[in-house]
Amino acid sequence: MRSTPLVAGLVVSAAIGHVGYPIALAAVARRRQPAPRVDPAAWPAVTVLVPAYLEAGVIGAKVADVHANGYPGPLEVLVVADGDPETAAKAAAAGARVELLPERRGKSQALNHGVAAASHEMVVISDANNELEQGAIAHLVRRLSEDGVGAVAGEKLEGTGGELAYWRFEAWLKRNEDLMGTTLGLDGGLCAVRRSTWPVIPTDISNDDLWVALDLMERGLRVAYEPQAVVREDSIGGTALSWERRTRVLGGGLWVMWRKRQLLDPRRGFVSAQIWGHKLWRSTIGPLSHLALLLMAVRSAPGSLLARLFLAGHAVGAASFAAQQRDVRLPLPARLAAQVLYLQAVAFGGMARCLRGDRVLQWAKPAR
Fold first, then answer.
1. Average pLDDT for residues 108-130, to the nearest whole number?
2. What's the pTM?
3. Residues 170, 53 share a domain
4. Exposed, middle or buried: residue 356 (CB in 10 Å: 0-12, 13-18, 19+)?
5. Into how many domains does the chain fold?
6. Which has the least CB within 10 A, 10, 22, 119, 253?
């Protein structure tokens, strides 16, 4: 594959999201020091909001997990059962306050209802199927008590191997963005918000966490990141379930960015840079550039050693992915190669879903 300006440009474009933006971010953030964490003078009352649908088998354990987290102030556990009487009954039996919606509305609208119904200004949101590490709630509230902070993102740990490496990469990005003032890496599995600044999520939005982060940042509020607030979640399961969730999330995220496209203007400063670097480029332009390089390599392979090596690397990644589906244990480099190829494929699946208007607001999920 000849080294031409086009090839060089495509290489740079393919690498911006996963390499270029992180390097630039780290170079700037390394000059910043995190502010000292200070406990509030009095720990405020907190509502822990758990949106739940088909969670009857785990909701009791979730309520107990929240109460056992060691928060030093008053604590309310509020479960919003999204058109699910069985989950509502189990949550009430476990000691939670329960709001039962008369019909399923989807997670975004369950969150709207729950935040409005919360008894307290400080609201911690957590999914029903995850487990909080000790002290996570207090760590979130400590950051949310800082001036100008509208939300706090916790740290999510999920899966093993390449999948876990992906979440650690996301955590690294959020840590450096936080040093710059704000991060858009809010995850609905564990975060904290203020009831008074909650942005009501529109009915056509499925990616509640990204909408909340961008709306708060648009209003000049910070989204902080607290790495000590850790939540652990099992991997979603097989490839089919993972593909469905990831393409749905990516397609829904692209729709959010389109709805908030005014923030893409470079004059918005760091907010714009984050959207382009952290989300948009590596979900669209980067994968398209990668595909163009792959097609050029196929055409150039007979006369180019570099092209053949490029294709061989993809073959290794594809073979590693296939081996993982058979539960073959692989070295970390092979798992990472498989994860990178899979995420590139997910990007195309997400783009396709966004373009055809496939915004699933009430997705199918297994009962737990």
1. 97
2. 0.91
3. yes
4. exposed
5. 2
6. 119
